[in-house]
# Entry
Amino acid sequence: MVPSDALEPERRRRRRSPGRIVLVTLIVVAALFLVWRVVVLGVLEAHFGSGFDDRRFDKVETQFAHSRAAFAKADARMRELAAAHPQAERIGWSLTLICVREAGRAESCKQATAGDRAAYEALRGVDVIVHQSKDPGRTFFRLYGNDPPRYTIMHVSDGTDAVAYAKDRGFRGTRSLRPGWTLLGPIPDVEREDDQWQ
# Structure
């Protein structure tokens, strides 16, 4: 019979075998990787996937309520720009530039006039105002905020069903602000968002 003291070195050698160390290391690394993925996917879901954040919708709705006249004035100006450029595929208006892209031509930009800058500055939280020929009768006020997701206020001159429009374009949420004005939640699919805003 082998004494138990003689078996002790054999047990230690088995516990520290290279195969066992590699196996334990792989299990720990896999577990850490899984935890990391769950955290990253959770953060992405919070930013993009859940549709919309009611608090952010509330904030944008409040901004809109305080600036209704400014939004109406900017919408009227964008309609003037669209009428002046009937061949434009896209018109983008920012604080300093108004850019027009016509079919088959490069985008051309001009400095915004002092009146255009004043009208734009009266808007709260708007990063760019967009008119697109593929969305006739609509003006979009894009609100990027400090981080994604992106929200948009849409003005429609006709009786478009904003909920159906939003669903068709991939927006995850809507909120009616007043007749003709709708807040659209983010488009979580990056390709669909790129297609929407060309």
Summary: The helical segments are 4-15, 18-49, 54-66, 68-84, 114-121, 162-169, 190-197.
